Amino acid sequence: RFVLGIETSCDDTSVALVDRNGNVAAIETMTQFDVHEAFGGVYPELASRAHLDAILPTVQKAMQSANATPADLAAIGVTRGPGLIGSLLVGLATADALSLVWGVPVIGVNHLRGHLRSVGLDGGSMPLPAIVMLVSGGHTLIARMENEWDISLLGSTRDDSVGECYDKVARTLGLGMPGGPAIDRLAREGTPALRLPRPMKAEGFEFSFSGLKSAVARQMEKAPETPVADMAAAFVEATIDVLSTKADRALSEHPAKALTIVGGVAASPQVREAMQTVAQTHNVTLCLPPTKWATDNGAMIALAAWDYIERDISPAPVPKPNLPLGTP
Ligand code: ATP
Ligand code: FE
């Protein structure tokens, strides 16, 4: 038995079939980088149109690739928020229609809970309690997870998310979308000669990244001859310094068994390496999603939906653009 997971909260149309143990029987994803590249960010109206074109063929391909029929489905899990309203609506309306036609129940899933469950895909596990850091395109937060349904927020960003900062710095440096991987690669070739600010590093669990982004832009204006690889290296160094300092502080003040990093930025090899060091210092297990499950995907939504089934929680498939972390 599988859950069919549907994710359309932002700019990826992604559909997966996943069993209770997190084995992914099929995954089909259509990205929209070419649609939004010229705008330097996701253009909401175009995103929902692209989802509309992609969603049914993507569902069909996923079902075929798993060799599944509707009778093999325990439920359809679909992202209900947070995300762009128009994008969410396409996934939700599709899930609703399929539920009616196939006679399979539909569950509205919290996208952030999906990211948290991404570490459970492909046989991964997470000891609890855990300190979890969600670093994505729309969020940057650190929380303590007591169990799967009891999560207390320690702090989040006051302005930009880390992922946004990667994307904007990539734009400043003239790299294409997606910005994250391009910066990772370039940073490896440069030296962090320049010291960039580390906003809010010294205290607490809140973050601020807009100053770092502006510092990069100012430096490139002031000294356009600065090698972009060096700039990327300095940016990555500053970002990782802030993220690992916060993770380290969280583990000192709120002891846990695991350090878990999820969200698109958890795909960064530099972030993964730095967090390994933090986890070793505190002698806790480091839990990372396999790189391909760090960014948005239907598989993590399907696995999260299994938890809802187990608890008999079934939020309606209605869009909630600002759904917070603590809500199912
Ligand atoms: P949210 O989940 O908060 O609603 P989102 O779904 O848009 O936001 P994700 O798909 O989890 O975000 O992550 C996308 C972000 O991750 C982008 O900002 C991108 O730059 C960043 N990212 C992706 N790959 C990498 C990488 N290898 N290194 C650094 N950042 C990366
Ligand atoms: Fe996401």
Structural account:
- By secondary structure, the protein is an alpha/beta fold.
- It is 43% helix and 20% strand.
- It has ten helices and ten strands.
- It has helices at 33-36, 44-65, 85-102, 111-117, 162-172, 179-189, 210-222, 228-253, 269-282, 298-311; strands spanning 2-7, 12-18, 24-31, 73-81, 106-110, 130-135, 140-147, 150-156, 258-262, 285-287.
- The chain has a five-stranded mixed β-sheet with strand order 3-2-1-4-5, with helices on both faces.
- Helix 2 (44-65) runs parallel beside helix 3 (85-102), helix 4 (111-117) packs across helix 10 (298-311) and helix 6 (179-189) crosses helix 8.
- The longest helix is centred in the last third of the chain and has 26 residues, at 228-253.
- It is globular.
- The structure holds adenosine-5'-triphosphate and fe (iii) ion.
- Fe (iii) ion (FE) binds next to helix 4.
List keywords for this structure.
328 residues; alpha/beta; 5-stranded mixed beta sheet; 10 strands; 43% helix; globular; binds adenosine-5'-triphosphate; binds fe (iii) ion; KAE1/TsaD; transferase
Numbering strands along the chain, what is their spatial order in the largest sheet? 3-2-1-4-5
Q: Could you tell me how far the N terminus lies from the C terminus, measured between alpha carbons in angstroms?
A: 23 Å
Q: Which regions are unreliable across 5 or more consecutive residues at pLDDT < 50?
A: none
What is the H/E order? EEEHHEHEHEEEHHHHEHEH
Bound molecules: adenosine-5'-triphosphate, fe (iii) ion
Mean pLDDT: 96
Output the structural class. Answer: alpha/beta
Helix content: 40-55%
Mind summarizing the main beta sheet? 5 strands, mixed
Proportion of residues in β-strands? 15-25%
General shape = globular
Number of helical regions? 10
Computed Rg: 20 Å
Total strand segments: 10
Enzyme class: transferase
Main location: cytoplasm
Cofactor: Fe(2+)
Organism: Celeribacter arenosi
